[in-house]
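PT: before anyone asks, these are the final sequences, not the draft ones from last week. 560 residues across everything. Please model them as a single complex and drop the result in this thread when it's through.
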Amino acid sequence: MRTRGDLATGYLFVLPVVVSLAVFLIGPIIYALYISFHHFSFLAPDQATWAGLSNYTKLFHDPRFIRALGNTSLYSLGVVPIQIAIALMLALIVDSKIKGKTLFRVVYFLPTVTSTVAVSVMFMYLFKNDGLVNLFLSKAGIPTFDWFNSLTFALPAVMGMAIWTTVGQFMVIYLAGLQDIPQELYEAAEVDGATPWQRLRFITWPMLKPTTFFILIMSIIGTFQVFDQMYVISKGEGGPQDRTLTVVFYLYRSAFKDFDMGYASAMAFVLFLIILLLTVIQRKFFKEETN
Amino acid sequence: MKKILRILFYCVVIGYAVLTLIPFLWSVLTSLKSTPDMDKFWVPVSSLTFENYSYIITKFPFFRWLINSAIVAGAVTVGNLLFNTLAGYALARIKFPGRGLIFYIVLAVMMVPGQVVMIPVYIMLANWGWINTYQGFIIPFLTSSFGIFMMRQFFLALPVDLEEAALIDGLSRWGIFFKIALPLAKPALAAQTIFMFLGNWNSFMWPSLLASSDDMYTLPVGLNSFHWQYVAYWNQDLAGTMFMTVPMLIVFLLFQKWFIKGIATSGLK
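LR: through. Structure below.
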């Protein structure tokens, strides 16, 4: 369909977006690439000197970066599968014929609307030495910990918090996916005498594949960019012996505390490549699975 | 057997609900306890008090932070609604040279994590003198590639018949957009409003970079600095978190249907 003046209207409609993308995204991406190949300090941008690949090679000899990358991977590896499993389980529950399912949907979704900063403060209070969590543990005869100051438990405690906060969002996306599955499939399966487990295994799960793919990507991208919680909980320090230092956290610190912006930009591009690579791998994997 | 399964099922349902609610309830309760009572598990209702709230309101600019958050999140949301919708519509419906290229660029930059541009944009805003100003908080964030993509997908899925009928009736492209397409796009607009407002209300990293004096803090930045530097007791700290949490909870409870639908429609198929 065409109307008179479409050409001008079309350009006018996209103009603000094109200007904004050019100024605040595409230009900066190119500039960031330039910075990443230079020794570049914010305090003296005129004195940037060519660094070649040295910012990039330095990354792999920097024990703090390795630690940050390890923490981030561990965090992602722990959070993503548990998050998806709980989200799917909750979606199946609130999609079934239970009483008060609207209420449960609202309750399960509640943490999603709260800010990571507020949630972090709440969880610090819950997980402190004489906090509610330890109170219950000690009543149950289980040893207690100073969670966020513990070498072993600081990261898992933040992981638990992240799962608690975001599960509701993915539950809702699963719920939308569930409602798109044709009911006839279930009716046919019932006629054939399929057990509930078989229906879940052979109808629900395969039909939810695109949803799962979407959630998987969102979840991985989100976990690889984690920053707020770690920053708030460790008061900008990265936890005991850098145990909650993540890639973005280290990037932020290198750029705005050490003012080593070339190094921080190199880190940003490595993060981008990791996210890109993981997304491509998943896309391949999921395509093969569905064929 | 079936009965046991059923009981087990309800245990999970209610158990997870309790797990979700406890952090909120316990924080609210603690924020209402006086300092001597703070570490007591049970406190009679009569000794609950609002003194933590009145203390932090008089000592710290929580209302100012609340207003800053509302201004920034509000302005960014309005801008995104307008610009992303215009662009999404044009990319879906209007044929003009270069539209394919623009769409591919939008798709490509969606993949780039925000941290890549954080440093250059910060330098740029510093050069313009936009650090610690409202325009610095708002203007760089007025469009979003995800929002553009979402609106384009929505308009693509909308049947063209109505628009064609309107065209025959003599409506211009602007008329078609404002009188036909926009009213039909209400669900997508609602989803975008929720996303943008929630995301910006809760956003922490950018505002903490851009705000350098405490009268320009947004709530998350203010709360974080409050929590790090000034707080004497947990009950006051938790009263502070309520400034962040309660407005969003009220909005959520009022519009929960839209919220849940909004998140669901963004999981685009």
